[in-house]
Amino acid sequence: MADQPEGSTGDKDALLRITQGLRRVDVGTYALRIRLAEKLGIGTIDINAMAFVGEVDGMTPKALGNLLNITTGSVTAMVDRLESKGFMIRKPNPTDRRSVLLHLSPAGTHAMQWATEHFAEAAAAVLAGSHEESISDVASFLEGIGQRLLAAATAPE
Fold this sequence. Notes:
mainly alpha; 6 helices; 6% strand; globular
């Protein structure tokens, strides 16, 4: 494939495989989140909220609601539920006394670590025997895809 010109069928096939692979990762992630939600006795939207708050520590409830596409009232009820189960905590917002910031509790962080460990095991199995440079390239690629997808999801229309 190195001898094929850019834009050739080989490049399209490789891009299709990458796209299908990312879709499978997405489906696998969703399946893991469903399993974790069942283990914790909470809903999948609660797990999604924990994942967002774990990614952006100190997120406002309004930002979380925008990401999850749910109302302010629904966010409040969800955070109340997660707080009562010991997975999330509210802290005063130092820049706006009318607002709070959301954080995972130690139990919430531990719960999300379960999914992270499954990701790490899957990655280690797939990357076993790979060169360090290749692993670094894969990591950079995935970080870039993740950042761009999150940016696209939060960008104004």
